[in-house]
Amino acid sequence: MKTLIAAYSGVLRGTGSNILSALQDVFWFSKSKFEKQLQIISVLQWVLSFLVLGVTCSIILVYILCTDCWAIAALYVAWLVFDWDTPMKGGRRSPWVRNWAMWQYFRDYFPIRLVKTHNLPTNRNYIFGYHPHGIMGFGAFCNFGTEATGVSQKFPGIRPYLATLAGNFRIPILRDYLMSGGICPVNRHSIDFILSKNGTGNAVIIVVGGAAESLNCTPGKNLVILKNRKGFVKLALQHGADLVPVYSFGENEVYKQVIFEEGCWGRWVQKKFQKYIGFAPCVFHGRGLFSSNTWGLIPYPNPITTVVGEPITIPKTAHPTQREIDLYHSMYVSSLSKLFDKYKAKFGLPETEVLEVN
């Protein structure tokens, strides 16, 4: 308002040419504020989808079955039965959904960047190990579940498949939403299909640390659960898929979490959920919807930079020995540590920072 008054005063004083620049300043401010609101809405949409979409869709479906519109729900249930195995066979990705403009606002909120360090030949298949998990894996989703950061342009000919909990694909509506982004179940059948019956140029992205790693995600901490996670290495050997370490700097900085100590009741509850349901409930908070000074579910707008490292060539071995698995696992751990050390200072960490591997 002060800018407009000053510009109007300038017109009265005979300096009316100033009004154009003044109006441009006001328009820029309004546009910038509007874009920021769109960014917050796009992030909130994904947070709510992550937390409650599955439960909400299930409740709505059951409710519709109890109304006069039950035939619509019955048709969907019939389709669900018919389509049940699709997630295990590469899913049903939609380039249209992956290129929604909403994902660009999602990307710009933090912002999120994808850094390519090496070319990936299209005559090979790949398993990307993504670290760390974070609370919701914003970097993994934005970089590999959408085209917001240009993954298909940076790695032409490579089809990314972000792997997540298989239970999500048993939930109506949510399963279709996830598949549209090229997201698949993180189980043996699904990954076997992608790496053996879907040609070459496929990249399965596995968040190796999983639910256990999410329990230790807190700002300022760079810790990965990896020492005893060797199943992805065995899969790589069985299919001759190259292993690619991926580290997301800033993934742990977007939420603040209450870390329960080992042995306390809180950690006991989290581990029981992890064991029997597949995920661990985290006690966390971000900023509020309308103010950054209040608590809420919106993540803090801190940069996330995902660096894709150099592929490790893996031979195809139908029945790998434990010694072979251990060898390539140690190579992978070493490669991940080198990737972290090489880029940590460039993306805001001190040179003395060490990646903790548990």
TrEMBL record:
Q: Which GO terms describe its biological process?
A: diacylglycerol metabolic process; glycerol metabolic process; triglyceride biosynthetic process
> What are the GO cellular component annotations?
endoplasmic reticulum membrane; lipid droplet; perinuclear region of cytoplasm
Membrane topology field: Multi-pass membrane protein
Alphabetically sorted, this entry's keywords are: Acyltransferase, Cytoplasm, Endoplasmic reticulum, Glycerol metabolism, Lipid biosynthesis, Lipid droplet, Lipid metabolism, Membrane, Transferase, Transmembrane, Transmembrane helix
Pfam families registered for this protein in UniProt: DAGAT
What compartments host this protein? Cytoplasm, Perinuclear region; Endoplasmic reticulum membrane; Lipid droplet
Q: Does the keyword Acyltransferase apply?
A: yes
Transmembrane regions listed in the UniProt entry: 40-64
Entry's EC annotation: 2.3.1.-
Q: Which reaction does it catalyse?
A: 1,2-di-(9Z-octadecenoyl)-sn-glycerol + (9Z)-octadecenoyl-CoA = 1,2,3-tri-(9Z-octadecenoyl)-glycerol + CoA; an acyl-CoA + a 1,2-diacyl-sn-glycerol = a triacyl-sn-glycerol + CoA; 1-O-(9Z-octadecenyl)-glycerol + (9Z)-octadecenoyl-CoA = 1-O-(9Z-octadecyl)-3-(9Z-octadecenoyl)-glycerol + CoA; 1,3-di-(9Z-octadecenoyl)-glycerol + (9Z)-octadecenoyl-CoA = 1,2,3-tri-(9Z-octadecenoyl)-glycerol + CoA
Q: In which pathway does it act?
A: Glycerolipid metabolism; triacylglycerol biosynthesis; Lipid metabolism
Write out the GO MF terms.
diacylglycerol O-acyltransferase activity; retinol O-fatty-acyltransferase activity
The record's annotation in InterPro entries points to: DAGAT
Principal location: cytoplasm
- Family classification: Belongs to the diacylglycerol acyltransferase family.
Q: What name has this protein been given in UniProt?
A: Acyltransferase
Gene (name only): DGAT2
